[in-house]
Each structure stands twice: as C-alpha cells, then as structure tokens.
Amino acid sequence: MDVLALRESLARLAGNHRWTWVPAMRRLWARLDGGTLDRHPTLIIADVATSDLEALLSEDETMALVADELTYLDELFVDGATDPQFAYFSPEFGISDAIPQYSGGLGILAGDHLKAASDIGLPLVGVGLFYRQGFFRQAIAGGQQAESYPTVTPESLGAEATGITVHVPLPGREVAAQVWRMSVGRTQLLLLDTDVAENSDTDRAITDRLYGGDRLHRLKQEILLGVGGTRALSAMGWNVPVYHLNEGHAGFLVLELIDRAIDGSDLSTAIDKVRKSLVFTTHTPVPAGIDRFDRKMILPYLELWATRWGVPAAALWELGADATDVKDRFNMAAFALRLASSANGVSKLHGEVSRRLFAGIGIGDDITSITNGVHARTWVSEDTQSVFDRILGAGWENGESEAWDRVDSLSDSAVASLRHIGALNLAQLVSDRTGQVLDPDALIVGFARRFATYKRSTLLFQHPERLASMLTDNNRPVHFVFAGKAHPADAAGKELLASIVEFSHSAAANGRFTFIPDYSITIAQAMYEGSDIWLNTPIRPREASGTSGEKSALNGGLNCSILDGWWAEMYDGRNGWAIATSDAPDPVLRDRDESEATLDVLDMILAEYHEDPAGFVGRIRHAWKSLGPGVTAARMINDYRRQIYMPALSRAR
Q: Could you tell me how far CA 529 lies from the centroid of its own chain?
C-alpha cells in the first residue's frame, strides 16, 4: 500500500462510523489530529500531512489495524444491502463528539440503538434531522453558563449526499429538504436538511439548531422529521413495514402514512391500517415532559391534511387532544398512543408510572417496558475492554451471563489496577480542562447529567456543614467531579449549575469539588472510567431510566442512587447503594431528608473504600457479575426485536 492508497483507505474508514466503538481507531484518529479527537476523521484525513502517512506505512501494528477494519467493513455487506424493515425516528442521535447532533440522554440512547442494531444485523434505519448549528457548546463566564453554536456542514461530519430532495407541505407552501446519509456500521442514518436554495431564509433555518427557537419552530421541525422522514425512506426506494417513534417528536409521520392508506377509504379505516405499523417508546414519567402544541398554532397544519382527505380538522385534533388537565393542547404522546399498536416505557418502574400517567388514552393501559441499555464497546474504556476480552472472552459486550460469570477470575490486584488507571486518566482530564488537581487515591464521586431541577444536582448542599466536613477529611479523602449542561431556556437549571460552579471555587470545597465545563461524550467516557462512585439523586419516580449509571457500572464504578429508573429493578443490596427516599409530603422537607440520607450513605462508602479495600473490590466484582448481563444495548436491542419489532412486523404484513 502506498500513501495515496492509505489516504483512500483511511477516508473510507472515516466515512463509516463503526470507528466510534473501536478504541484503537479512535486512538489513531486522535494521534493524527495532534492528540485529541475534536474533529471528525473526515477532516483529519483531508489535512493530514503526507509525511505522517508515510510514517504509518512503516508501522506493522497500525497497518494491520487498518487492514482488519477494512476487511470488517467488507464483511458487513458481504450478502449485499438489505432493505430496512424497521425505521427508528428520533430528533437527535448521539454517535460521537465529532458529530454534534445530540443534546443528552435521548440522543445518546438513539446512537447506541443504531450501533447495537448494526452489531446484530437488525435491518433498521435511523431517521433524524441535520442541524447546521447542532446543540450548543458550553462555557462558564462569570460563574454562569454561556452558549455558543458553531456551524457545521454535513460533509464535514462524514455524511454522504444521497441526491434526494423531499418536499413537505406547510401552510401556504412546501418546504424542501435534502437527504443526507451516514453509515453507522451496517446501519444507515438518514438526516433531513432544509438549508437549500429553493427555500426561503425562514425555512432554510428550520433545521438550524437542535431544540432551538420557539414552539412554532419546534412544530415545523417535528413535521419535517415525521412527514419528511417518511417520504425520504420512500425516495430511497424502501418500503418500510414498521415505524418506531423514539418519543413523540416524530409523531407526525402518521399523517404521511394515513395519506397513503386513505385511498378510497374513510379515516378510521386508514388509521386501522397504519396502526399495525407503528410502535412508540415514551421517555417521560411526568406530564410536564410531554410535547404539546397550542390549538391555535397547530390547527392550520392539521387543516392541510384534513382538507386533502375531505374530513373535518376536528377529527385530527381529537387524535391528539390532551386528556389531562391541560386543555386546548395537542399532546404528542396521546397522539402516538391513540395510533400505535404497541408502546413501552424504558424501565420496569417507568412502565408502571406510564400506565398510570396515560391511563385511558389509546393503548396507555397496555404500555409495557424495555429497560434501556448502553453500547458496551462505545462506553467501556480501552484498558477495561482489553482485560474483559482476555479474561471474560467473547460475549461480555452482548450481556452474556456466562462471560460475566468469569469476572471471578479477575484478581483483586487486577481490578484495583484497572480502577487506578481510570482514576489517573480522569485526573489528567480534570487538570487539562480545569487546572485542578485530583488525587487518584481519593474516593472519586461522579455526577454528570442534564441540569434539570428534578435531577437535584445541588441536593448535597442541603447540609453544607456535613459536606464541608467530608471534603476536608484528610484521613478519608473524597473528590466530587460534576459535569453537565442546562437547557438554554431553563432558567432554574442554569441557577443550579451556577451554584455548583460557585461552590467548586469556594473555600468549603477544599479543592476537592470540580465542575468540568462543556460536557461531552469524551468527558463522559473519562468520568465513567475514573469514578469510583456514580451519584444519582433524582426525585423518584421522575427518572424514566437513566443510563449514565449503567455506563459507569460497566467500567467498574459503583452506583449510589435513589431507587429510580433502571436502578430500581437491578439493585440487589450489594452491587451498589440505595439512597432512602422520604415520605415527607413537603418538597423542602423531602429534599432535606434525602440529602441527609445521601450523605449517610456516602459516609458508609468512604469507610469501606478507605478501610476495607478488599471488600470494595469484591463489591465491584459482584456488580459486574450481577449488572453486566442487564445493562448492555445488545440485551436491549434483542428485547426490542423479540417483544416489539417482530410482532409489529407480523401485524404489518
């Protein structure tokens, strides 16, 4: 292979995002970009010097890696392309930091869903929007969150032009959207982009920012995602039998499906046909989290379709009419539940909560649950993967119990060594990003998530004297590492974040409480690798699932959490710690009680960590054994295939 062939080979590997879950490839891209993977490899390859490629040609190990990855890509498609049978619609997809098309947990889950589908060969295609400004980058200015929105292009993120443009009807006009394609292993992801010349400036900006703009802007984005995404699938030549709504944001795809089914029939008959093809996953456990639109705002958009079909607009309104105490709102969750053939929550507890929340709405009483999982090869550190591959053997990343049973073969020293390496790596990141010093021998407590009020990031501050005492104890040192973003429009969330930042610089923090700005996948990976304890303090039962604790668990971190989401069903008394919840009806008293309970548990953890290291390591080993089979995206995607997708495919056919 010469330099030109190597550049072409690397460009091919950059164009398929399988590299996002191959640590050696991520390391190679970072090396070619000066040590960090801040840019998409497509840009790195375009800029890499010929001399650097010549140096790679002389490295047998690197060239073997490139050859192996090229062979793997060839084998992915050895049987030819298979038309997708399942279309997975989501407003965001978190695949890599180099692809800023995600904001948080919903997008990360969607990215893991695509990767897991690729791993098992599930014929699934993702459908989303391409945001030219993505989600915001975070800086801390004057102790407050400041947002910036760097502009990106599809080509710079490894997207391929399909040459397809779809048109979506909006009041008084049609909006054009070009269709881009990304490859995620063998899974394809279609992304719609309205920044095209034939649109007005206003319509070109529909896909400007993820969750940007006002409610009308959001409505237009969701119509584009649902209707335009469905048309894009057809324009690709795919007759997809099953449509999966990852939350209600893409619910308007039903309008396009009804339009195809209503030919010569009435609306109810067309809906019955469409229902067989539609499955819905809800992610919200509280009414406030449901996507809703005012009647006056949405009626002109519904009237377009009602006029086309010769039915009253009221008939379409009733499909999404809110059945809660909020009147004159079109409820996207209710819309999906009235039209889907199956629906699920994302943990057992969330399934129970959802059945109560949506009782009497469509199939709300029949909501099942599939607990979220995480893509192991993406989230487990390279060092830990290497040990697991050698000791546990094949299958650990797929959640195979037989493989995870082999963790008993890991010696105490091997486990402790892995944890120490992770702590050193996190300490280096903390130093690079904040200038603070993190003692790798301290108990490291991680907390990273969206700064929403129900997640209670400042719960520990309810008892400042106890927290300060803990942070100044030199006999049992502890270091808290926090990260996360608040939604730009969430004033309360921004206040919580500012409180965290202020405390991190206070004398009471004693240099042992760090906030890392601009939370990202890279920061998350370092925190999962290096945190001994993963702290989670939501108001129960408002955490639908929560997957950050699952990622920490796979890396050997132990969960200390309110019994909510996935933890409520997987905690066994020894694989981590449960924080007691309060029965106090007053939220102020409840938070004070649960803050004290959290500090009580942390005191117990500190004692065990510093005084009984063998017992702590044994707890890690037990957590791996008991949680490994349950928290992987491989388990999750197989649950979806068995419980949701295949039954829906049978109905649709």
A: 18
Tell me which CATH code domain 90-340+637-652 carries: 3.40.50.2000
Q: Domain residues of the chain, as ranges?
A: 3-76, 90-340+637-652, 384-629
Burial class (CB in 10 A: 0-12, 13-18, 19+), 199: middle
In sign, the C-alpha dihedral spanning 548, 41, 157, 515 is positive
Superfamily in which the 384-629 domain is placed by CATH: Glycogen Phosphorylase B; (3.40.50.2000)
pLDDT at 323: 66
* Rounded distance between C-alpha atoms, residue 310 and residue 317, angstroms: 14
Torsion of CA 595, 598, 604, 606, to 10 degrees: -90
Structure tokens at 340: 């889907």
Do residues 518 and 138 make contact, with C-beta atoms less than 8 angstroms apart? yes
- Using CA atoms of 232, 235, 241, 242 in order, give the dihedral in degrees to the nearest 10: -10
Q: How far apart are CA 412 and CA 618, in angstroms?
A: 8
What is the H or E stretch that residue 201 is in? Answer: helix 201-204
Long-range CB contact pairs, 301-306, < 8 A, 24+: 301/170, 301/171, 301/219, 301/223, 303/171, 304/169, 304/170, 304/171, 305/255, 305/258, 305/259
Determine which helix (DSSP H) or strand (DSSP E) holds 70, and give its type and residue range: helix 60-76
Cβ-proximal residues to 234 (8 Å cutoff; 6+ apart), any chain? none
Instruction: Quote the CA–CA distance of 372 and 546 in Å, as a whole number.
Output: 8
Residue that the structure tokens 């394609």 belong to? 181
Sequence-distant (6+) residues with CB within 8 A of 476 are: 443, 606, 607, 609, 610
Give, for 448, the enclosing helix (H) or strand (E).
Answer: strand 443-448
> Which pTM was predicted?
0.97
d(CA 438, CA 481): 9
pLDDT at 404: 98
Q: What radius of gyration, in Å, describes the C-alpha atoms of the chain?
A: 25
C-alpha angle 157-158-164 in degrees, rounded to nearest 5: 105
Closest CA to 256 of 222, 279, 227, 298: 227
For the chain (653 residues), the mean pLDDT of every run of 10, in chain order, is: 94 97 96 90 95 95 96 81 92 96 95 98 98 96 96 96 98 98 97 98 97 94 98 97 96 97 90 97 90 95 96 95 76 96 98 96 97 98 97 96 97 97 98 98 97 96 97 98 96 97 98 98 97 98 96 98 98 98 97 98 98 98 98 98 98 91
Instruction: Please give the pLDDT value at position 146.
Output: 97
Q: Which amino acid is at 65?
A: L
Element (H, E) at 589: helix 587-611
